[in-house]
Write a structure and sequence with these properties.
Layout lengths: L4 H28 L5 H9 L9 H15 L3 H18 L17 H16 L15
Helix pairs in contact: 1-3, 1-5, 3-4, 4-5
Length: about 140
């Protein structure tokens, strides 16, 4: 019923790699974009949080996604991505929680999908198609 171990491991790899690549693209944009971390710093300051919190976006959108893609410390990396998404949802998108997009879906469906995928990886682990292997620490 649950599929072969090979197909489960392939599914875990697909989930964590797609999540990692899509989140990493946001991080690359922050590093290469003209505004850099400026927008995040402003949002963090406006929320009354310490300035250093803004730099967590680099961990959540660069370091953690790379760990997901290669499959090393995947559960921890997924939790970091989930926390990063919660910060984004509450600090940047809180006004959109009860809104629908023009297409009829939830206005935060992308953020919600990233959060859900990260939680799924945190629960499922990386699988054997990973640098850390199926029994790797935090994998």
């Amino acid at each position: 019923m649950g599929g072969s171990q090979g197909s489960q491991d392939l599914g875990k790899a697909l989930l964590r790699i797609v999540l990692g690549v899509l989140i990493l693209m946001h991080g690359i944009a922050k590093v290469t974009g003209a505004s850099g971390i400026g927008f995040v710093s402003k949002v963090v300051a406006d929320a009354g949080l310490p300035a250093w919190v803004a730099y967590g976006v680099y961990i959540g959108e660069l370091v953690a996604p790379i760990l997901l893609i290669i499959g090393l410390w995947s559960r921890l990396a997924a939790i970091v991505v989930a926390v990063n998404m919660l910060f984004a949802m509450f600090l940047v998108h809180s006004k959109q929680f009860g809104m629908l997009a023009d297409t009829g879906g939830w206005a935060l469906e992308l953020q919600g999908m990233f959060l859900g995928a990260a939680l799924a990886v945190a629960l499922l682990g990386a699988g054997r198609f990973s640098v850390g292997g199926i029994n790797g620490k935090l994998n």
